[in-house]
Amino acid sequence: MSQMNDACRKVLESVGNALACGVFDLERKQALEIVHVPEFSDVQQEMITRAIMNLFRGINAKLLANRAHEQIGKPVMKEKGFREIQMAFEENFYFSKTIKNGNAALILVTKENTNIGMAWVQLKSVIPIVEPLIP
Fold first, then answer.
1. CATH of region 3-130
2. Within 15-125, where are the H helices?
């Protein structure tokens, strides 16, 4: 197994009710590594890949961020977009963080009864391992 796979597996095994952990190259628009539990389907993997690209690089994300900055009187963002996103859906939580100067992202998908603090701690703990491995 690769170091990236090991890091994702560490997060998956350390967070209660984790379903998937992955590393995504936002520049090349591709998943670099995804580790998941058996019941997490290929369709779900594909949906996550598309969603993460849209969340961090899509036009709607940039518009939303810029409008939010305008509302509070701050200048329009010059950075690539969001740095961290946490979303709650009916049955799942999604935790995602950009790394490698916004050119890549880590994501963790869990069931809704996961400890949110533990999820963030474990996801961020593998950044020093994963970041140097991203092309």
1. 3.30.450.30
2. 42-57, 59-71, 116-125
